[in-house]
Amino acid sequence: MFLIFGGLFLLLFGRLLSIQITGQAEGRQLAMMAEAKYAKEAILKAERGEIVDRNGELIASDTLSYRLIAILAESATEKNAKKARHVVNYEKTAELLSRFIPMEEEKILGQMTSAVAKNTDDYKVYQTEFGKAGRDINHETMLAIKEAADKEEVTGLQFIEDKKRFYPNGDFASYLIGFAMKEENADKKITTVGKMGLEKTYNDLLTGVNGKMDYKTDFWGFVLPKTEKQIMPAKDGMTIQLTIDKTIQNFVEDAMNQVQEKYTPAKMLVVVANPKTGEIYAMSQRPSFHPGTREGLTENWLNDAVENTVEPGSTMKMFTLAAAIEEEKWDPMAEYQSGQYTIYDKTIRDVNKTGWGRITFLEGFQRSSNVSMAYLLERMGDRTFIEYLKGFGFGERVGIDLPHEASGILLDINPSERLTTSYGQGTTVTPIQMIQAATAIANDGKMMKPYVIDKIIDPNTKKTVEDHQPEERKSPISKATAKQVREILASTVTSEAGTGKKFALSDYTVGGKTGTAEIPKKQGRGYLAGDGNYLYSFLGMAPIDDPQLLTYVIVQQPQLEIGQYGSDPVSELFTTIMDSSLKYMNIVPEDSGVSNTVSLINNVDKDSATATDTILEQGFTPILIGEGGKVISQYPEKGTKLTKGSIVLLETTGKTTLPNFSGWSKKMVLSFKMLSGLDIRLNGDGYVVEQSLSQGSVISEKDPVVLQLRSPEMQFTPREFEEDAEEVEEIIGG
Prior knowledge:
Elements: H1 2-22, E1 24-25, E2 28-29, H2 30-38, E3 39-44, E4 51-52, E5 58-71, H3 90-98, H4 105-116, E6 127-129, H5 139-152, E7 157-166, H6 174-177, E8 179-184, E9 190-196, H7 197-201, H8 203-206, E10 211-216, E11 230-232, E12 239-242, H9 246-263, E13 267-273, E14 280-286, H10 304-307, H11 317-326, E15 335-337, E16 340-343, E17 346-349, E18 358-360, H12 361-366, H13 370-380, H14 382-391, H15 415-422, H16 431-442, E19 447-448, E20 453-458, E21 463-467, E22 472-473, H17 479-494, E23 511-518, E24 534-542, E25 549-556, H18 567-584, E26 597-599, H19 608-617, E27 621-625, E28 628-635, E29 641-643, E30 647-653, E31 656-657, H20 666-676, E32 680-683, E33 687-691, E34 698-699, E35 705-710, H21 718-733
């Protein structure tokens, strides 16, 4: 027995010695096995980058959501537990869930029973999920499911925190922004991927890099004391800051919704731009969709402003006019015979077929005469005219920072094609090309490249990765020509003979050109016929002496009643958007009189006390941002014409004392927010009526300030109105 036990001891000792020396057992590294068993790794999820407007207001971001899991394994419930942790009643669970997630009761039940059917002696299914229907569950729905489950004694349901893409503005520039959604990759991992628009174009930049945390646990999974955690932080995706102005975009969306309801057109498009920089302030189309739910998304996935082409119709005539003026072939008082014009075997006619007799070229342009364009072409030469259109950028991509831009087709094979091009038929353009070309007229001959990306910012370092600046293009016309074209465009709105009378604004002079283009048939040659089967448009700018906004509106095939015209929905869109936007931008109304406005001088680099005195002397109200000292920047910029009493912001260094925001416009508040860096939160639109912290408070960037805004028509509540009315009645009665 001694020899037997002695031999076994020696054998065991030798085995232990071998394991200690080699670190292996049965050919496997024990250290690696221990590391695999007790070393854990937690994924630190990165957030997808935000998309914000020019003022930093949110357009798209990640938000908290939940993923639904049903625990099926009975082993999940400990013995003698008071409440089961696994699904006990499959039928009852399926019925409950069908009330909250977009999945039928039978499919939910089948999902759970089919998962359990895969159980074997060696393998037990622990849980199951419900695909897309069980993901992206919001907080309210999660709480509702939990509450219902507790009330109805349904067990085994768990929720895991997750992220989903959030679009707080709903149907808002959706064909520009696009959407992102979760999908399963080759590694069976669920990731958020941009599928359309900016979300797709900038998907790589918006997608963050997950981090991780390594740590060690004991047998039961608890973190071992004094264990060092190795953390690799997550890197969130880049922030894309657009040139889009959320307020102007909302003006566009609201106006389009009203016109959609009233006229139910087949299509609509609106683009609003700053002609001095090329920045796009708003871009939208109809039909449209909600990027969060994809409700309303049709088979069309194209951004019509960039990826689709149209025949522009008579809006093209402003560029024909510009070419004739630049070539010194424009004589506004010269006369021609309107009605029809024949070249070779092709005869073109004015819109009323018979014309208006012998009229001047100026009246011909105001009436949108096709024949007047034909005679202008004779004067300057049709090939010369085509070269001007190329100079305006037609026939080639503008190079906007958006994908799949179309180039359009500039017809130039024979004289008849060049003739029809002069009044916008045959040749095709993109709306963004029309915007670029019109900047040359609105901006004193300086043609600006349109763009929608303002900055790309790394949120992890707060550094700007890309900073897009205005880019001037070579223009085919001079400052003098641009000014003359604007004056003639204004006359189409103010003249009795003008086709643009409906586009007039009460406070600003508008210049622009109407258009009515035929719509090519989808199959075969030719154009659609019949009332309303046209593409109606207007390309306009205001104020005409110094245009601050350029807007292109297209309405296709509106449903018109007797007495209505195709220009009606177009003018309703244009005037609503332009009037609201110009006032939001604090552009001084022209009827206020030049004598009431003063050009703001430059106060940058001056001492704040000196700058304040200067601003007061000019009749303005200075607001100091910071503690004083050297002025770093001012808003508005020098040269801006302001009315007496207007606010001027002066940025210095140090902590900021809150002003009285009462009566401030939303744009002025946003400018104050950007210069001060304070956490100012806005509720509503219009003008400030309440603020959460009082005037004179000295706060840091971490202290939030909430401002309540109301539009002018909302300043009085119904009760206040009733009280005012009672006072009036008492006065009258007394």
